[in-house]
Structures are given as C-alpha cells and as structure tokens.
Amino acid sequence: MASIGNMHEDETGGRRTTKSVYEAILGGIRAGRWLPGGKLPSVREMGELMNVHRLTALKAYRQLADEGLVEAKYKSGYYVKTHEARAREPSLETEWDYKARSLYVNRSRLSDIHRQQVDYQMSEALIDPNLLPNAYLSNYVKQVFDLYPRVLSTYSTVLGDAELREKLGGFFLAKHGISVHPDELLITTGSQQAIDLVSRALAKPGDKALIERPTYSPAIDAFQQQGIALLPVTITPEGYDLDEVERLMKTERPRLFYMNPTYQNPTGYTVPAMQRKRLVELAERYQCLLVEDDVYHDIYFGGPPPPPLFYYDTEGYVLYIRSFSKYVAPGLRISVLAARPALMEAIAPVKALSDNGTPLLNQKIFQHYFFSKRLQEHVAKLRTALELRKTAMESSLSDTGWQWASPNGGLNLWVRLPDHLSVEELLRRALSRSLAFVPGSICDPLGGMNDWIRLSYSYLNETNIAEGIRRLVDIAEEIRSEH
Ligand SMILES: Cc1ncc(COP(=O)(O)O)c(C=O)c1O
To answer: What architecture (CATH level 2) is domain 120-131+375-482?
Structure first.
C-alpha cells in the first residue's frame, strides 16, 4: 500500500472503500505515523486525506474503535489508544486469544514499516532487484517447463522435491563437509516458514527459549505467538557471553536457542569458530536445541565465514536453516531446513498442515538456476556490489558521530544514535518524508534498545544511499535543534 499522504485511490484505481481506509489508518498507526495517546486527524480531515466522503472515514474510525484500537473522546475527536488502556479493558476473548492478537497489533510494526512506499528504502533487508540477473533467471523458467512438462500439474512431496534435496545434500557435503541425508532436509517457503514450523513443532506454550538481543524481529513474534517465553542473550562487540549462556541453559532449561550467528541481523556480528564449538557442546550438555538461522552465509565481504554450527554437531542438537531466498531469487522463496530424523519427524507433519509442500515449480526453477555456473558468477559480483553499498553508507555516516561496528557481510548496519535523539520521532518524520529505517526497539525481545536503528544498505544504489543518509541526518539535526 502506498503511504497515506500521497495515495488517494486503491490499487484498482477506484475510490477507497471503508475497509481500505480502515487498513490505511491501521497501517499508519502501526508504522508510528500516529502514536499511542495521540490525536488522529478529524473525520473531515481524514476524509480529505483519503479522498473519501467523511462518512466513510467515520465508519473506518468506528470500526477501529469497536476493535479497541482507537477511542473517541467526547467533543474532541479520535485518539490512538495506548497499549496500557487496551490491556486494562475487559475482553470476551480468552486470555490466549487476546495475547496473540495484541501481540500482532504491537509487533507487526515491522511489516507496516516495510509496506510504506518510500523513495529511500533503508528498512527492508532486501537486495535491489537491479542486482539480480532477472533476464538470465527467466531462461531457467523456460528450461524447467521443457524438462518437466507436468510440473504445473504435480504436487511436491511434503519434504520437498527429491531431486533438489539430493542435490542440496551434495552441496552441504562439498561446501561444508556436512553429511546430511535427503530425508533430513525439508524445503521451506523462505526461512521465515522454517522458523515458524520450528516454533510450532518443537516447543509448547510455557516453554522457554533463548534468543539473541537484538535479533530478527519476526522470530520474536513467531516464538511469542506460541506462548514461548524468551530469555535474551545479549550480543556485545565480543559476541555472546558464553558463561551467561551456560548459566541460562543450566538454570532455566530452555527448549531451544534461536540464533543467527553469521552476519547477524541486525548487528552484522559473526560468532567465531571457537565459540561455535563451545555452543554445540553446551547444547548437548543441557539438551537445548540450537536453531541456526543462516540466511546471510553467502553474503560475505573478504573471506567466507566460519563453518555453520551444524558442522560441529554430532548428536543432533542443531537445526540448520539455510535460505537462498534473498540472493538467488526472492520471488521463489526457497530455503532448506536440515534436522536429524527425530526432529524432522516432528516438523514434517506441521509443514504438511501448513501447505503440504513448497510449490514444485519454484523448487525446480531454483534447482536449475542455483546449481548453474551463472549463479556462482553472479554471487561473486553481488558481494562486490553490496560491499560498495555498505562502504557508501558508512562514508555518508562518517561525520555524524553515530556509532556502528562495520560488518563483514550481510545487508545491515546497526547504528547507535546520540542519547538525546528520539528514534520514534526520527521515524515519524522520516516516513513522512519518504524515508524508512527500522527502529532498534523492534529488534529487541525486551522492547528497549531505543537509541539504535537498523539501516539496510542492500536496496538503494550508492547515490541514493548518500542522499537518503543526508536527509536522515538532516532530520536528526532538525530534531536536535528543537530541543
Ligand atoms: C535472520 C533472518 N532470518 C530469516 C529471514 C527471512 O528470510 P526468508 O526470505 O528466507 O524468509 C530474514 C530476512 O530478513 C532474516 O534476516
């Protein structure tokens, strides 16, 4: 959906319906355009903003009020409800439903930010489509239809196409020296689905899980939706405090530890090989599963990263998620989850319930493209292009006094702002000027880290990165000068 300020028509070009006005207001609230406790535009103003009759705006406000998301104040207008006010209200829903729904309302801010169409998109860790060889990829689409004329009339198996799993087994052996049987591999629709499946199959409400602080925020949501209590493991410039990890494993007995140890999102941090070995030993000792989310493994600058934790695992405590979604073809959404048979037995039925198998066509196109020489050439070029963009962002930030640790791979900079600057205010103004980034609090399982932001350098070219950062710094300066 386009940003509210500049969109007056829905996607079909027609006038907006109540539903789309409702969604646009909700999107604005979640993205921080209107803050909890703040006043919303009057019914007339909202009507003008959306180019609808004021009655349509009124109906949308009423629906939001019925759902407890906004409140009408007598003779004053509509206000965004605070989280506290919402939590105080009696509800007919069960406590569990309420938790799940309020969680969605609080947390889905990330996708709301991503949904805003802005000129300077630094919020989404997404690779610029201009950096992917689209024309070449379409050749593989044609090839697949020639090779498998029935591909569109066939289901995949739940685990995924046997030929692809076989080939990926060979890939793990050749690339990492990891021996994994094709039946220990499950093709998923992005690593996002793999995380969701793990959260549903391997833990139950009330279980505890360790999670990095900060982390990839949809993982926080996925585990919390299942009623899993999250225990944060802080990432410092030296990495995890492994004694603390051991203490938590020993005293709290977490069921699993969700981690993104290679070019971590958002910090860019990579856990060194020695720590990887020790983590696997701890997992075995305390019977805590390690969910290793390895989406950025191939996006390195300089040398490649250490082997995955999965490589060190002999007892089956590591579940390894390797996504090819971002840098091969995001439109295909192909990722693989590797797990030893006892765990796979629990996960596969959940995948069956979820979608009965990732679309076969996507798997076949991926297979033919991924194992081609062209892909290897492309990845090498892509690394160089991304590193140039990272450098462009870092040099644009160099005079600001803002702080970050330069990552050796991945797509993001994790930046600390000066203490006095309100990130929420920065975001609100940035969005209204067509610029987006991720506020750090979204990445924090404890909802803090208010001085941090995540800036992705993968989507904009160098010129736009320089301009985007210049504008962001100007807004920060404007806020500073007002206080
Ligand atoms: C750490 C991490 N895990 C998982 C994902 C989801 O990726 P996919 O496109 O494979 O679903 C992302 C995407 O940004 C990510 O950063």
So the answer is: Alpha-Beta Complex (3.90)
